[in-house]
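USER:
I would value a second opinion on how I read folds in token form. Give me a protein, with the fold worked out from its sequence. Write it directly below this note and I will take it from there.

ASSISTANT:
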Amino acid sequence: MTDQSRSEFEAVSFGKRVANSQTFTVLFKEGMALVEETASYLDGPGRRESKALDRNGALAYATESMRLTTRLMQIASWLLLHRAVNEGEMSLAQANTEKRKVKLSAGDQADAEILGMLPEDLRQLIGRSLGLQERVRRLDLAIHSEPGGGEGENPVERQLGVLRAAFERDR
């Protein structure tokens, strides 16, 4: 098979296209807005609400607000890396190397009893951040999955999985 005919059958990297799409732009804006909204809440109304909590509630508030800010900073780092790729400031390979420093894992999450001690606004921010994190994780999978996959893997099935991951909506 010639190089030209082989390239006709190579898998398409939908992830790279998704990274430059409206999907990413919307996700970026939403992520950065959530970072700002959370900072504003924690510095203002959240601080006042935390002072009204009992000792256990205050401890839960401190723990969960730290988890929230850590999660959002990781998401913001990922979004900024990929915006740099979109703007030509770095290659996708460079971003892939740098993103290893970013932790998008679900990590520890509070149980319902702990969440019940928190002010409603903080619970809402936590829920939204978890949803955003999941969407970023799906997009990360789509962007950084290698087209072609492993030996014996069905490339069509793999691409369909990447598409599902990239465009799946929160229900």
Notes: The chain has a mean pLDDT of 81.
